[in-house]
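Go through this:
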Amino acid sequence: MTGSRGSRRVGALVRWPVGVGIVAWRYLWRTTVTHRSEEDGDASDLPEPLPPEVCDDRVQHLEDGHGDLLHRTYSVRVAGGHRTPEELLALLARDPNVWSPSGMAVFRRTKGSDGAMTVGDEFLIRLPGPWDGPVRVVGSGPRHFRLATLHGHLEAGQIEFRTEQAGEDVRFVIESRARPGDRLSHLLYDRLLVAKEVQLVMWTHVCLRAAKLTGGRPQGGLTVRTRRLRAPVHTDAATRPAGPDCGNSPEQV
């Protein structure tokens, strides 16, 4: 581990105790009920193929990671709000630092214009522990935007933020499909389970923040579903876009 990558890991570990303290404090004082479940996964848990126009040698694919694939869905149903799904998504896309946990995550735009999540935009997400890293917007629409990890990120995979109409209510969903990006994050996720819990607290905080931004209230608490696809698994060449940077052949993950 040398150069800037090694320096980033050292700096992240120095910040680690602060990050754990913040997470523990917020978890202890949370009153919203969280419904959690975990089950075995299958090939349906693999992420969508990336569009060729956003796929290059900087993208960090699942097969670049280590350990199991975690397919995690965090969701909240919001009642009594005054924003439509499209209005909420536009607000979330305008500035991620409005809804990211203060003191835990800072989005710094490194490519693209402020005010939206446009395909091809890039961010560097800074967190107080060793799992920050660069991402690229690889999908965007009126009710969703999707990010893919780039090399240097401590995860390998994708995460989507979306809004849905649920009767008269609005549902906000975060769905991630990723593996630990290197051996250190593999240890924190799959052995010590610390990073997994930190991630849970962070994204459930975002769900509650999204509910507040609608002007409504969480209905029925938060739901967190985890599906674990045990390594090794294989990607299917037929589901991957053509091009040498996106992968054209099945590889062991």
User: Anything to note?
Assistant: The chain has one domain: 3-239. The helical segments are 3-29, 85-94, 183-191, 194-214.
